[in-house]
Model the fold of this input.
Amino acid sequence: MRTWVPRETTTRFYLTVMLLLCLVPVATTWSGQGFYLDLATRILILAIAAVSLNLILGYGGMISLGHAAFVGIGAYSVGIFSYYEIHNGLVHLGGAVAGSVLFALVTGMVCLRTRGVYFIMITLAFAQMLYFVFVSLEEYGADDGLLIYQRSDFGALLDIENAVVLYYTALAVLAGCIGLVHRIVNARFGRVIVGIRHNEQRMRALGYDTYRYKLTCYVISGAMAGVSGFLLGNFTNFISPEMMDWTHSGELIFMIVLGGTGVLFAPVTGALAFLLLEESLSSITVYWHLIFGLILIAVVLFGRGGLHGILLRLLSRGKSGRC
Amino acid sequence: MLRTIGLNKSFGGISASSDINLEVSGKEIRAVVGPNGAGKTTLIAQLSGLLRPDSGTIIFGGKDVTNAGVHSRARMGLARSFQITSIILPLTVLDNVMLSVQSVSGHSYRFWKPVSAEREMHEKAMRNLAEVGLAAVSDRVAAELSHGEQRQLEIAMALALDPRMLLLDEPTAGMSREESGHMVRLLSGLKGQTAMILIEHDMNAVFALADTVSVMVDGRIIASGTTDEIRRDPAVRRAYLGDSRA
Ligand SMILES: Nc1ncnc2c1ncn2[C@@H]1O[C@H](COP(=O)(O)OP(=O)(O)O)[C@@H](O)[C@H]1O
Ligand SMILES: [Mg+2]
Done:
């Protein structure tokens, strides 16, 4: 029989992971391995995007293959404002959120009329449309993109030109997003979203206008992904349409599946595993894509519930071994 | 309470509803009986808003709801159960009913306060569960319940909406004799509380519960009346009761 592992136990594990993430800059500064700080920053930023996708995909069952579009919008907000020599961080951030909310609203109104494989295809189509729009914008570098010479300016208090400050900013945003998703899914709104995922017809028969709830959820998720794009633009100092490519949307889905779909912290462990694996494999062999793909397939097929599922099994085995 | 005027609905060549004029008033319990394929489920689907009629009008609580969506009709007090049980299987019994209670206690665009802190909703849900006799299994996952209990849960979810009218599509379908006896007792306890349209094959249950009966055959209502009138009606005996006893 299935052994039950208390929620507190896994939460404690994930909080330990978060705590270890707090120590990364200390370790990299001490050892002088700046490269690893960069890698860790990238992991955090993509984890934010994955957390936002987990809200609609994991909890709401809306499998979007266009989530990278929001990340791109957030990054372009930094790039375009900087291009016009507007460096105010609040403007950049505001643009990132407003742009992704608008895109989520307009595309969501269409996508959410459909479901299943049609939903996947239409989110993909909208994201690719946006990709080609930016490819055609010569002013902003077309498919070469734009360099960002100065990061978003938040005054002296938050100097994100400093790599360590940017790292902790990303970590704080990630923690904030996880906290927000936690509140949302345990509040009335989140209950409705989860109900819709499992039985939309029943939820409508209970009096819920399911379309509106899904649209609201989609917009919240898009805004969150926009913020991650804002950080990504600042981090890479560079934007290009390639950021919106559907392969990146697919990677975000993989991070979630790897971590454990619909688990609060899973996007973090998923992003960690995904990027560390990618990094280590690509340094070993040029055929790393093949091995990477095989590992991902193995986790999906055999590691039911992703890393979270594996964690649960390890914990329950440890317990039954003791008694 | 509910009135339909000349409802028509056909699927390809099959006329599933033709010229349905139905009137259910006050707290009446109306049974709709008829052989399989008569169009009973299709009628419920149009009343609840899942299907649009090809023509005709549906009036509920004095309002024309012919074009209203499923969710707005539910909000107006039209609750239903499905012929194939429709509950939220991975959630607990209590959480299923909580979703109903939540639907009628203010809006659900609340993003911060945990539902677990909403004591009144919790208490109301537990009362609804007690009403159908499921209070003892409130913590179980709905998928683990027996078929009979799942159908009871679906009734509890409908009742938690404080409906003005219940649409029940074969509530005893697939139940054991004991389970359906329990369901009939449960439903008779609701008499006088809310109006009901009840689709049911078991004529004993129909005569025990219903005030009035409509008989459907091939998309038409061939007779309507009190249970006694229907029991005596020769056309009904020939078309329907006759076969079921043969
Ligand atoms: N979605 C549908 N598409 C095509 N035909 C349908 C559909 N739903 C019902 N029908 C047909 O309409 C008729 C009435 O079906 P239904 O309302 O389910 O009958 P009942 O509930 O009385 O058994 C049947 O002939 C059935 O095959
Ligand atoms: Mg039927």
User: Anything to note?
Assistant: The mean pLDDT of chain A is 94.
